[in-house]
Design goal:
Elements: H1 3-16, H2 18-22, H3 24-55, H4 61-67, H5 69-83, H6 101-110, H7 122-137, H8 139-167, H9 171-189, H10 195-208, H11 214-233, H12 261-276, H13 278-290, H14 294-298, H15 307-318, H16 320-326, H17 337-342, H18 347-368, H19 377-404, H20 424-428, H21 430-447, H22 450-466, H23 468-491
Helix pairs in contact: 1-6, 3-4, 3-7, 4-10, 5-8, 5-9, 7-8, 8-11, 12-13, 12-18, 13-16, 15-19, 15-21, 16-18, 18-19, 18-23, 19-22, 19-23, 21-22
Length: 495
């Protein structure tokens, strides 16, 4: 059996999966988003020549692009390190077949390179190469320019795979990468050396010189060789699909929660579940990064008087962890849902545990974002109102969505580009969660004063908070009505 046969099997596996057709609505929405993203990137590519000319009139657009390419490479490597999953191989069906070890290794190394996501940048690169590079440097240079970009993508992907397999993707690996990147930026800032100049000279030689492509080609071969060497030194087929390098931090004791009885024990289990699995851990990490989102808006004078946008940011920032995890708090238990339903735990306790967990996420986000209070009284007031609205209204909306989400989630699967468990309901739920409060702010800001809208939303949030016991009882009733549908949905196997 050849390497090509394995790739064909992988392609057929994706289209023959039950999950592909069950999530057809989500896949259609993703396809629309992909087309939109491709259109935006194509527009950027057509405008890049003009943009780079305005950024720096001392250098040509190609010089400016090549000068920033090392920054792009380093940032891409860092992003891939945290988001690109390691490729896996379902060895069991092939154990009785005549398949070479080298074919399996080549499959694992080449599989990430075939991802369509890698080549979205070509929507920017090809128009720029045609409009700018070919115009000033000729056809041959423009072709080398595009090839160089593809080789850089391959180098970053292969290097990421090697670093993750060699050193893991744990906390200290993340710290090391951030320190290295911060050190490079610091040396650039204090003018110890110019990374921009080094990058410009290096990639100008790569693109313009006929022998220049030897450098990226050699780099890709070196990264490929390192990966092959690692596999030859650590080739254990039975470990290909085993989660390795479990960190002690995820096994931390949470016995202090036991004092709260069964509910505390359930919360402890949910917290351990979040930190022990790829998808949930990745979502939490990315949520913490997006808490810096407010800096884009709060420091920009354009949005100073746009109260609708500012309140959206406040709503997003104070409830980000809750939004990220809320609609899946029950689906994450799908692998052992039958066990939960047959254990000596009341439905009321189970619902309360999930409610308390989401409330805790909301409180954590609120305290983490308190430094935004330094941007003024207006931002402080918006954050307080958004926090109260999330605590009183949105937490229950998310709980309802979680109860109606019957799609199983396998947390051991890859975290990146994994939409398992996502349905059109998740998009519809944004209407009451986001659009309604934003509409209230916009209407009151237009016809009265936005402060009136803040008072209305704060009142709704407080009513929800004071009525939480009644609302939890309603959630329990809905869950009791839906639990058999949930159990039946979670038992379905997605191939």
């Amino acid at each position: 059996m050849t390497f090509t046969t394995l790739l064909i099997h992988e392609w057929k596996k994706g289209f023959r999966s039950q999950g592909f057709y069950k999530n057809l609505a989500v896949n259609i929405l993703l396809a629309i988003f992909v087309i939109y993203l491709a259109s935006v990137l194509l527009f950027v590519g057509l405008s890049l020549d003009t943009i780079l000319e305005k950024i720096n009139d001392r250098f040509s657009p190609l010089d400016v692009y090549n000068g920033g390419l090392l920054y792009v490479m380093i940032s891409g490597l860092l992003l891939r390190f945290f988001m690109q999953p390691l490729s896996s191989f379902d060895l069991l069906p092939y154990q009785v077949l005549p398949i070479k070890r080298s074919s399996i290794i080549n499959f694992l190394l080449v599989k990430p390179l075939l991802s369509v996501v890698n080549y979205f940048g070509l929507f920017v690169i090809i128009p720029f190469a045609y409009q700018s590079v070919m115009k000033h440097q000729g056809m041959e240079v423009s072709i080398r320019f595009v090839i160089c970009y593809i080789l850089i993508i391959w180098f970053n992907s292969l290097t990421t795979n090697y670093l993750k397999r060699k050193f893991g993707a744990g906390f200290w690996a993340m710290v090391a990468l951030v320190v290295v990147l911060g050190g490079i930026l610091a040396m650039e800032y204090f003018e110890y050396f110019s990374l921009f100049q080094s990058s410009m000279h290096l990639f100008n030689f790569v693109v313009i010189s006929k022998l220049g492509l030897f450098i990226p080609v050699a780099s890709v071969l070196l990264a490929y060789g390192l990966n092959r060497w690692f596999f030859w030194q650590n080739y254990y087929p039975e470990l290909f699909n085993v989660i390795q390098n479990q960190k002690k931090i995820y096994n931390a004791s949470l016995t202090f929660l036991n004092q709260f009885g069964s509910m505390g024990e359930l919360i402890g289990v949910e917290i351990k579940l979040l930190f022990r699995h790829k998808r949930s851990r990745s979502l939490l990490t990315m949520s913490l990064v997006f808490l810096l989102y407010g800096l884009i808006f709060y420091t920009n004078d354009i949005y100073t008087h746009n109260h609708t946008i500012l309140f959206f940011v406040a709503l997003f920032e104070t409830g980000l962890l809750m939004y990220t995890c809320g609609q899946w708090v029950i689906s994450w238990d799908s692998s052992f849902f039958d066990g939960l339903m047959t254990s000596n735990i009341s439905i009321s306790t189970y619902i309360k545990a999930n409610y308390v967990l989401l409330v805790a996420f909301n409180i954590i986000c609120f305290f983490i974002t308190t430094p935004y209070f330094f941007f003024g009284t207006e931002i402080t007031l918006m954050h307080l109102v958004a926090f109260v609205y999330n605590m009183g209204i949105n937490v229950f909306v998310l709980m309802i969505l979680a109860i109606f989400n019957t799609r199983k989630i396998d947390l051991s699967r890859n975290s990146t580009m994994n939409y398992q468990g996502t349905s059109f309901k998740g998009f519809l739920i944004m209407i009451p969660m986001m659009l309604i409060p934003l509409l209230v702010i916009w209407l009151t800001a237009t016809f009265a004063t936005y402060t009136l809208g803040l008072w209305l939303l704060a009142s709704l949030g407080l009513i929800g908070m004071f009525s939480h016991r009644f609302l939890i009882k309603q959630l329990v009733s809905v869950f009791n009505f839906r639990k058999y549908l949930l159990a039946d949905g979670f038992r379905e196997r997605e191939l």
